[in-house]
Design goal:
This protein has 373 residues and is mostly helical. The protein is built from 14 helices and no strands. The chain has 2 domains: 66-247, Up-down Bundle (ABC transporter transmembrane region fold), CATH 1.20.1560.10; 248-373, ABC transporter transmembrane region fold (Up-down Bundle). Helix 3 (67-105) runs antiparallel to helix 14 (365-372).
């Protein structure tokens, strides 16, 4: 009788026309909704983020209660970067003290530097004369170890204080992110408890779990690492760029050659790697969803004799995830060697041109050392 009653109920549902259109709620699904794909449990198609900026605005809103601590973190980063940028300039002065001391010890005492330079030009040794003209050597005097020691202590103090500031901002940023993520997980938990059952019926459980766990972990990692590195990198680029042009605008322009080369590498490799990483995360969600559905529906799988089919689907999705992960990691791993090649190429150009300018008396050895650092 139960079977007959169920059949009558099905016939009744199939013959009843839809006389009115019910307005869908926020989490309701249309009656004709079906997951995309042709596998047993269905699969959802890849979709691009349609509300990126509103979501980013909401994420910034989560940081709003921590705005004063956030401002302090940014100030600490600025202070650390400023000290890190200034230190090579002081270290360059220490290099000049050593270089000038070595040159001065080779010159006769009791004469001025101008007289030595004039004598060298009379002898036709213009190159060495240019080097002395661009230096601050004192004839007959060696390395001023007292001044050298003070400069080294200043450099050590700058790097130490910069490291303390960076550690402090990392500690504060970690505390801030943990509070924000804690509130985010709490909000997600409350939101899930308010969702209707129709929301979960139309979605894979593994996909929902992936959004609750993996996506929140990605947000936490982005706030902890990517954000800190982004702010520090931007400020470092600005500070180093300004210091380079202060030391030598000619070498500064030469260093800018690396920018278009780096942009080309990022454009060719970064865009393709981003697509592959997107596919990797999507296929990770597919595999997690399939495993979750298989485990929770283990009895149904054996009742309908679908164990072989489920194993085949698992193998296909696992292979697909392996392919996407391998390509994404391989392509992204090629970016760093390419960027290092550009960096080494720029280093060689700056070193050669800087050495020529030192021999011409247009720069000091300390300035070239500071520029390279």
């Amino acid at each position: 009788m139960a079977k007959q009653k169920a059949e009558n109920g099905m016939n009744s549902d199939s013959t009843t026309p839809a006389t009115a259109t019910t307005e869908l709620g926020e989490f309701d699904l249309p009656d004709d909704y079906a997951p995309a794909g042709d596998d047993w449990f269905g699969d959802q198609p890849v979709r691009k983020a349609k509300h990126f900026w509103p979501s980013a605005k909401r994420l910034i809103g989560l940081l709003a209660p921590e705005k004063w601590l956030f401002s302090l973190i940014v100030l600490l980063v600025i202070g650390s970067v400023t000290l890190t940028v200034i230190a090579p300039k002081i270290l360059g002065q220490a290099m000049d003290v050593i270089f000038n001391g070595v040159l001065g010890a080779q010159l006769p005492a009791g004469v001025s530097l101008d007289e030595v330079i004039a004598g060298l030009r009379t002898q036709g040794n213009d190159q060495f004369a240019d080097v002395l003209a661009g230096s601050g050597a004192v004839p007959g005097e060696g390395i001023d170890f007292a001044l050298l020691g003070r400069l080294i202590l200043v450099v050590l103090a700058l790097y130490t204080f910069a490291s303390v500031l960076m550690w402090l901002q990392g500690f504060l940023l970690n505390s801030l992110v943990m509070r924000v993520v804690y509130k985010l997980r709490k909000d997600i938990e409350e939101k899930i408890n308010r969702l209707p059952l129709s929301y979960f019926d139309g979605r894979q459980r593994g996909d929902v779990l992936s959004r609750v766990t993996n996506d929140v972990d990605n947000i936490q990692q982005a706030l902890q690492q990517a954000f800190s590195q982004l702010v520090q990198s931007v400020l470092t680029i600005i500070g180093i760029g300004a210091m380079m042009f202060v030391v030598s605008w000619q070498l500064g322009l030469l260093a800018l050659v690396a920018l278009p080369l780096s942009a080309i590498i990022v454009g060719l490799v970064g865009v393709r790697a981003q697509k592959l990483f997107t596919a990797q995360w999507k296929r990770t969600g597919d595999l997690n969803g399939h495993i979750e559905e298989t485990i929770t529906g283990h009895e149904l799988v054996h009742v309908y004799d679908r164990a072989g089919d489920m194993t085949e689907i698992f193998d296909e999705r696992n292979e697909s995830l392996y392919d996407a992960s391998f390509k994404a990691q391989a392509l992204s791993g090629a970016m760093m060697p390419a960027m290092q090649f550009v960096q080494y190429l720029t280093y060689v150009l700056i070193a050669v041109v800087g050495a020529l300018r030192v021999t011409a008396g247009q720069m000091t050895l300390g300035d070239v050392t500071a520029f390279i650092q």
